[in-house]
Amino acid sequence: MSNPGLSAQPLNPGSAASGRKFPEGEMPGQGAEEQAGQRSLLPSPTSDEAKLLAAAQSGDHQAFACIYSQHKRRIYSLCLRMVGSVAEAEDLTQEAFLQLHRKIATFRGDSAFSTWLHRLAINVVLMHLRKKNLSLVSLDEAMEPSPDEGPGRSFGAADLNLAGSIDRLALEHAVADLPAGYRLIFILHDIEGYEHNEIASMLDCSIGNSKSQLHKARLKLRDALCAYPRQEERR
Amino acid sequence: MIDCPDTLSCEQFQSQLPELIGSGAAIAEHAHLQHCELCKALLADLEAIAEAARQLLPIVDPPEDLWEHIESAIKGERESSKEE
Questions:
Q1: Distance of CA B81 to CAs A41, A64, A101, B37, B44, Å?
Q2: Which residues of A touch B38 (CB under 8 A)?
Q3: Interface residue A16 vs chain B (CB under 8 A)
Q4: What number of CA atoms fall less than 13 Å from residue A196's CA on the CB side?
Q5: A159 Rama sector, left if φ>0, alpha if ψ -120 to 50, beta otherwise
Q6: Is A18's pLDDT higher than 50?
Q7: Considering CB atoms only, which of B44, B46, B74 is closest to A101?
Q8: Residues B24, A200, A122, A18: what is their CA dihedral angle, to the nearest 10 degrees?
Q9: pLDDT digit string (tens) for A144-162?
Q10: Which of the pair, A3 or B25, is modelled with greater confidence?
Q11: 8 Å CB contact of B49 and A207
């Protein structure tokens, strides 16, 4: 059914499409290697990918180097968005690939390799966040920010009318200021293009929880974006 | 079309939004939005945020020497495991 009331970019575009939200060619700055990595999001790896994986699993260093080349940008970008610091993102990327090297032989293909690797990287990031902030003792807690970190209630609020007026820098700041759990879901779904079922699998949470956290993240971003111009005016 | 007689308050409608959005349903046709400008504006804002998020996509390359650090660490781990 057509949906003329919605904008060209629906809130859940991935649900209407098979597979990923971002077709190849729509991802600025990505080369062939990264696109090869993107394709590995699909459930069935190509024979080349399977061979590369098998070689890396048997200890072939060059094969592992190729896997690093294919996935380094997404893993590094994920780390960078999650921690906001270049130095920390480098350390986390290194740790993620070291863990991958230790564990790659245990990958059995129950999920797409890139999903498995992202989950590994996310765990590295979460461990790091826990060390930095003892209140983030578990993913469950990261997924459920304290009440004062939650989004404001919307019913009864004024028409904020953000459409067409979202400043990229303001949005980046607002995303960086999100509580870790909200930020993680928002980055995975709205920026990286993962589906709720993939996120649920990666984070060991329910699909409903992923949907709920994403919604709360967007509401909190809305609150932050509406406050942003007022902050600027004060300067 | 979401066949739903609008007996919902804004609070009730908004509590259903995560599932409605996540399911990919044609939310704009929801009965509640046919008369509620407030919730319609909320939905438009959330759509704008989701769309703007796609512009944050650019992927960043890690530094060139990161692989050297990783290789070095892998080598160090191998050597220490041999010693054990």
A1: 33, 19, 14, 65, 57
A2: 155-157, 159
A3: yes
A4: 21
A5: beta
A6: no
A7: B74
A8: -40
A9: 555 555 555 554 444 456 6
A10: B25
A11: no
pLDDT digits 0-9 by tens, B51-76: 888 877 667 899 999 999 999 999 99
State the smallest CA–CA distance between residue B27 and chain A in angstroms: 8
CB contact under 8 A, A154 and B14: yes
Q: Which residues of B touch A207 (CB under 8 A)?
A: 22
Backbone dihedral region for residue A29 (phi beyond 0: left; psi -120 to 50: alpha; all else: beta): left
- Domains defined for chain A, CATH in brackets: 33-132 (1.10.1740.10), 136-152+161-235 (1.10.10.10)
Q: How far is A75 from A114, CA to CA, in rounded Å?
A: 10
Number of H helices, E strands in chain A: 11, 0
Considering the entire predicted model, what is its pTM? 0.65
Per CB-CB distance under 8 Å, the chain A contacts of B2 are none
Both tokens of A91, joined, read: 């350390």
Q: Which of residues 160-219 of A touch B (CB under 8 A)?
A: 160-166, 168, 171-172, 175, 186, 190-192, 196, 207-208, 210-212, 214-216, 218-219
| Shortest distance, CA A170 to any CA of chain B (angstroms) | 11
The residue with tokens 């971002």 is A22
Q: What is the complex's ipTM, to 2 decimals? A: 0.74
pLDDT digits (tens, 9 = 90+) for B22-48: 887 788 889 999 989 999 989 989 988
Q: How far apart are CA A198 and CA B61, in angstroms?
A: 24
| pLDDT of residue A234 exceeding 80 | no
Chain B residues whose CB is inside 8 A of the A61 CB are 74
